[in-house]
Amino acid sequence: MKKLGMKEGEALEHSWLNRTIENAQRKVEGMHYDARKHLLEYDDVANDQRKVIYQLRDELMGTEDVKNRYNSIREKVIGELFEEYISPQMLEEDWDKGGLESVLKAEYGLYISLQKSIDDRRDVDEILGVVLQGLIDSHDAKEAVVGAETMRTFEKAVMLRALDHHWKEHLAVMDHLRQSVNLRGYAQKNPVQEFKRESFTMFTSLLGTINTEMVKALCSVSVDQKRESAESGINERQPTKTSAKQAQNITKSEPAQLPKKAKKIGRNDLCPCGSGKKYKHCHG
Asked: Is 261 helix (H, G, I), strand (E, B) or coil?
C-alpha cells in the first residue's frame, strides 16, 4: 500500500481486496461452524470415558477392602514391566536382568537378585513368580507393622488419589486436543475421527498410568519411617512429665524479684560518689 501511495486512514476499496477478505472470513467462520457442529460428538467421547472413570471410582468408594483389586492390578503391572526386560520371545543372552533389578529397586522398593533363579534354569513364569512373591512378602510385612485396618485405609486412599489426579490432567489434555484438532480439516482429515482416535489412545495410556502409579506408591512406601516421624511429632507436641516438673522446680527456686525503689537524694545532701561535696555542686 505504501508503494501505491496510500496514506494512513484512507479507505481501502478494491474488488480484489474485498474478495480476499471475504474468503478469509468465510474460512474462519466455517472453521468455527465445524467446531460447534461437532461439539456434541466431542462431548460424547468425553462422556464415555467419564462413565468408565466414575464407575471405577464408585467401586473404590463402595468397598472398604481393596486388597484383592490391588493384588490383581499389581500382578498386571509387574507382568507388563517384566516383559520389557525378560520375555519368552527373547534369547536368554538378551535378558536385561540388571535393568529389571534396578527398576524394581528404584521405583518399587524391592531389593531382589534374579541371578540365582536364572542359574537354576527356571522358566520365565517362575522368575516372574519370584518377583511377585517378593512384593507380596514386602507388603505383608508392612501390613504386620501398621495393622490390616490401617493398610486397607491407606491402599484405598492411594488408589483414589492416583485416579483423581491423573483424570484431572487427562481432562486438561483433552481440552487442548479439542481446540487443535479442528485445524486438521485443512489437511483433508475428519476432525471428529482424529479426536476419537487420539482420545482413545490417550485414555488407554491413562488407565495404564493410573495402575502403575498405584502400585509404585504402595510398594515404595516406607512404614518404619512414617511411624518414627509420627512418634517424633507426638513427642515434640506433648512435653514429658519430667520437663514439666523441672519447670515447676525452676519457678519455685527462682522467685521473681521486684525492682527496689531508689532513695531520693536531696540537693544539700552529700553526694553518694564520696567526694564530700554537696549533691547540687557535684552530680546534681
From this structure: coil
Distance CA 225, CA 113 (A): 25
Domain contains 69: yes
Q: Which residues contact 132 (CB under 8 A, 6 or more apart)?
A: 74, 75, 78
Helices 191-220, 97-108: crossing angle, 10 deg rounding: 80
Q: Is residue 17 part of a domain?
A: no
Residues 147-153: contacts with CB under 8 Å, at least 24 apart: 152/64, 152/65, 152/66, 152/67, 153/64
Return mean pLDDT, the chain.
Answer: 79
Higher pLDDT, 221 or 280: 221
Stronger pLDDT, 255 or 140, i.e. the higher one: 140
Cα distance between residue 238 and residue 119, in whole Å: 55
Q: With respect to residue 55, please indicate whether it lies within any of the assigned structural domains.
A: yes
Torsion of CA 90, 95, 96, 100, to 10 degrees: 90
CATH number of the domain encompassing residue 81: 1.10.3060.10
Q: What is the pLDDT of residues 208-220, one digit of tens each?
A: 999 999 999 999 8
Residue 137 — very low, low, confident or very high, per pLDDT cuts 50/70/90?
A: very high
pTM comes to: 0.64
Total structural domains in the chain?
1
Enclosing domain of residue 153? 32-224
Q: Which residue has the cell 502403575?
A: 212
Asked whether residue 154 is domain-assigned, the answer is yes
